[in-house]
Design a protein that fits this description.
This protein is mainly alpha-helical. The chain contains five helices and two strands. The N and C termini lie far apart (67 Å).
Length: 128
């Protein structure tokens, strides 16, 4: 099961780490307890919109940017989850390979360029 709070926490942590900031710095700037911010980053607590706004302000990140990144992560997680539950694809059916064969002239027929798709195995073509 995909938990939105975990994805949100992962994105918040990455944002903070990209800036080279500590939990203590961000929690102080956002006026959120260090322990609570840590739990939000680990996906253990659901952050309210007010709390997210304060953290985004502290990180100088727009909430829409944060949510866009969370949305992208959610899409990838959903794809991975659905790929894990779908049945395996059937084995491909082996069909003969077709190679283009170029014919530039045929006896008794005006010269025209004709392309014939023929199986990869050798084929004898006999004019009637």
């Amino acid at each position: 099961m995909i938990l939105l709070r975990r994805l949100l926490g992962d994105v918040l942590r990455r944002q903070r780490q990209r800036q080279g900031r500590t939990l203590r710095e961000v929690s102080s700037s956002a006026r959120v307890s260090l322990g609570y911010l840590s739990e939000v980053e680990r996906g253990q607590k659901e952050a309210s919109s007010e709390l997210l706004s304060a953290i985004c302000d502290a990180l100088d990140v727009r909430m829409s940017e944060l949510m866009r990144e969370v949305s992208d992560e959610l899409s990838l997680a959903e794809l991975a989850e659905s790929a894990a539950v779908t049945e395996p694809l059937p084995a491909p059916v082996r069909r003969p390979m077709l190679n283009p064969v170029s014919v530039t002239s045929v006896t008794g027929v005006p010269t025209e360029r004709v392309t014939i798709k023929a199986p990869a195995e050798a084929v004898d073509v006999v004019a009637a």
